[in-house]
């Protein structure tokens, strides 16, 4: 931490305090001046009687204003009602015109009945021609229909008359709500307030001057407070930046350490996989093919081992250069193994056994024959028996078995050679997939480390801000 503080300069508290002390002295002086002005304001007061009178007049003005507002509301409501009634009358007149028609000659039943009586008298006189009489009959029918319509619209006409009467009543009420008297009362009351204000104007002017001085001092004090807040904010920001740099450096160092460990572990794991890849590139079934070829050299004198040396452990000079004895089936006998000797059963195919078997093959790679003589008869070497058992072929105990064994070995040799290239390719692809997965896993781990450190940084930042708020 000490080395980091030397690397990043820590904000100087003494410089901040020196600036604040200068401003605090000015604040104290301004507070003293404000206190003196407050005392002077308290000394310049209007007497209680004048204040009480003025308060009464102000209260009365408020009541008058309220009355004026009520009058205005009532007049507005009356105007709205009149407009609604006018609209209703207009709508009802339209209904009447629709029922009677605009060409109706008579507007009352009495007029229509009088005309019907005239028509009946004219027809009864017998002086009319047939055409004239038909016209009058038709007119009389129209008049009868008109009478019915006039009877139907009579309630609408009465409703129109009622609406007109109501409008007249509302207009009379509107004329009664004259706001002029209330306005006169307000003007008279306001004049009294103006007189009181003129008498006390000197006191108010002096108080206003003191208020202005105090406002100026308040403004100056607010400026000083603003400067103090700015100085503290600047210092806090500098200190916050300083702490942020330290935290960033610490998290960076922690990230480097964790990523370094991760990279070291990746190198170890990658080394193992590279070693595994190297082994995978060795042709598949190398051990089994070499074991088969060496076994064929022993069991089949006509067999010529390929010159390709793929299994050094079982293709030594002893087996390649030493001519094999011919298997005499009549002399072959089974040897009963002792406790520590080889047992003629299929052995385990584990890596441990293979390693042990390879060591035995190395030890037995001597110029001697692969056959041993026991009681005047030849028997197979235990290592060969073990190899045949491991290859899962018949262990010969007579001449017929030797032929069968040779055929089985050759068949297995061909099978393994045919599968060798594909199996080798599969082995390489398998290891390459492991390497690809390893790279992906460590890339994810690297991202996870960075994510955890970022979350840690954000959490520390939130806790720091909460501490400042508290």
UniProtKB/TrEMBL annotation:
InterPro entries: Bfr1 (IPR039604). One of its GO terms (cellular component) is nuclear outer membrane-endoplasmic reticulum membrane network. GO terms for biological process: intracellular mRNA localization. Residues 346-368 are annotated as: Disordered. The keyword Coiled coil applies. Keywords: Coiled coil. Residues 349-358 have a biased composition (Basic residues). Residues 47-102, 399-470 form a coiled coil. GO terms for molecular function: mRNA binding. This is Bfr1p.
């Amino acid at each position: 931490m000490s080395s980091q503080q030397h690397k990043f300069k820590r904000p100087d508290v003494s410089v901040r305090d020196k600036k604040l002390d200068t401003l605090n002295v000015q604040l104290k002086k301004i507070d003293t001046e404000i206190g003196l002005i407050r005392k002077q304001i308290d000394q310049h007061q209007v007497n209680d009687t004048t204040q009480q009178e003025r308060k009464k007049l102000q209260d009365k003005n408020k009541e008058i204003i309220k009355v004026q507002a009520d009058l205005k509301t009532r007049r507005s409501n009356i105007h709205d009602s009149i407009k609604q009634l006018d609209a209703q009358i207009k709508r009802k007149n339209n209904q009447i015109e629709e029922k009677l028609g605009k060409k109706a000659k008579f507007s009352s039943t009495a007029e229509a009945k009088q005309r019907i009586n005239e028509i009946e008298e004219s027809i009864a006189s017998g002086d009319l021609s047939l055409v004239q009489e038909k016209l009058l009959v038709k007119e009389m029918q129209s008049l009868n229909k008109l009478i019915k319509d006039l009877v139907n619209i009579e309630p609408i006409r009465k409703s129109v008359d009622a609406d007109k009467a109501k409008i007249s009543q509302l207009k009379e009420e509107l004329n009664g709500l004259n706001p002029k008297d209330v306005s006169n009362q307000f003007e008279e009351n306001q004049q009294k307030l103006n007189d009181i204000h003129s008498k006390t104007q000197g006191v108010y002017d002096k108080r206003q001057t003191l208020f202005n001085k105090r406002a100026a001092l308040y403004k100056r004090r607010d400026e000083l407070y603003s400067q103090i807040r700015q100085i503290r904010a600047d210092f806090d920001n500098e200190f916050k930046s300083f702490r942020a740099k330290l935290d960033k450096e610490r998290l960076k160092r922690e990230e480097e350490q964790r990523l370094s460990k991760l990279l070291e572990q990746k190198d170890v794991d990658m080394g193992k996989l590279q070693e595994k890849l190297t082994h995978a590139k060795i042709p598949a079934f190398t051990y089994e093919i070499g074991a088969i070829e060496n076994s064929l050299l022993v069991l089949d004198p006509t067999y010529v081992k390929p010159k390709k040396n793929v299994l050094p452990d079982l293709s030594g000079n002893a087996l390649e250069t030493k001519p094999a004895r011919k298997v005499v089936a009549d002399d072959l006998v089974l040897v009963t193994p002792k406790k520590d000797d080889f047992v003629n059963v299929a052995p385990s195919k584990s890596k441990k056994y293979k390693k042990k078997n390879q060591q035995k093959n190395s030890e037995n790679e001597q110029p001697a024959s692969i056959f041993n003589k026991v009681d005047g008869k030849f028997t197979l070497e235990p290592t060969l028996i073990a190899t045949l058992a491991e290859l899962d072929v018949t262990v010969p105990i007579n001449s017929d078995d030797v032929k069968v064994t040779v055929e089985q070995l050759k068949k297995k040799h061909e099978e393994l050679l045919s599968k060798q290239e594909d199996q080798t390719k599969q082995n390489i692809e398998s290891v390459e997939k492991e390497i690809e997965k390893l790279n992906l896993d460590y890339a994810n781990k690297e991202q996870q480390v960075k994510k955890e450190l970022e979350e840690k940084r954000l959490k520390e930042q939130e806790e720091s801000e909460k501490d400042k708020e508290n």
